[in-house]
Amino acid sequence: MLTAILKNIGLSEKDAEVYLACLELGTQPASIIAKKAGLKRPTTYLILEGLAKKGLVSEFSGSNVKYFTAVSPDYLLHFIEKQKRELTHHQHELEAYLPELNSLTNPYSLNPKVRFYDGFDGVERVMNDTLTSSEPLCAYVNMESWFSRPETREYILWYGIQRVQKKRLAERCVAIDNDISRKYLEDEYPEVRTSKLSHFRWMPKDIAGVTNEINIYEDKVAIVSISPNELMGVLIESQSIAQTQKALFELAWRGALPAAWELAAAANPKKKTS
């Protein structure tokens, strides 16, 4: 169990075994730690050097022997925070160089135009791609589907904050009218009345059967399916398909029912709604 926890924060299985051996033994040379971890001494020594670079093991020399000591487990929280900071830095670097990387793509290569991703990771991957859009999203959404599973509920709450507060990405959304959607989108959605980035309309209740989330943006159509028997994402890259879906979305948007606050804003254009 402890090994699995350490692996979850970024250590390899052997890293975790050596760190735990150090904790149990206290200050010891690599040979003693290797026996405890069940590894060869040269392998253990290399692992200890790596853990030292990560700040998880300290070392000192005495009588021509190098000794190693595991740092306090409390430091592991600082280790995670350091990883977060480094990932954020690398993310910003990648975002800065994305145009240059995209410019290397061969426009004549036969890249896949339809990608399927299974499971919750697939749902995340497809939805995260929508956050890269350079234009407002057109979306169909059923919050009841998102809230049907703990992991998808947690993700869509995070996604709303990312889109509105971090990415400042606008969206028009036709939502399936049910109690969960009403409560979340009308009462709890991040800055929905003040950001001017989120606009929702309701699909008439007599239209049933829409359980997928569909996002249309740039030359892409992103679809995620969330149901008791299916969890998957599909990303379609096609200019013609995206253009057609945008036209169909306009028809749906014009026929959908405005949200309550948008009706109030239309009736009192000079009065700021809250």
Short summary of the structure?
This protein has 274 residues and is of the alpha+beta class. 51% of the residues lie in helices and 22% in strands. The model has no long low-confidence stretch (mean pLDDT 86).
Describe the structure.
With 274 residues, the chain is an alpha+beta fold. The chain folds into two domains: 2-70, Arc Repressor Mutant, subunit A; 111-267, Endonuclease, Chain A (2-Layer Sandwich), CATH 3.30.870. Helices cover 51% and strands 22% of the residues. It has eleven helices and eleven strands. The strands form two sheets. The protein has an eight-stranded mixed sheet with strand order 4-10-9-8-5-6-7-11, with helices on both faces. Strands 1-3-2 form a three-stranded antiparallel sheet.
How do the SSEs run, as a string of H and E? HHEHHEEHEHEHHEHEEEEHEH
Give start-end ranges of low-pLDDT stretches.
Answer: none
The dominant shape is elongated
Task: Identify the strand order in the major beta sheet.
Answer: 4-10-9-8-5-6-7-11
Main beta-sheet strand count, sense and barrel state = 8 strands, mixed
| CATH C-level of the largest domain | Alpha Beta
Number of strands: 11
Radius of gyration: 26 Å
What is the average of the pLDDT values? 86
Q: Strand fraction band?
A: 15-25%
Number of domains: 2
Indicate the percent of residues in helices.
40-55%
Here the CATH topology of the largest domain equals Endonuclease, Chain A
| N-to-C CA distance | 49 Å
| CATH homologous superfamily assignment of the largest domain | Endonuclease Chain A
User: What class, by secondary structure content?
Assistant: alpha+beta
Tally of contiguous helical segments? 11
CATH 2nd-level architecture of the largest domain: 2-Layer Sandwich
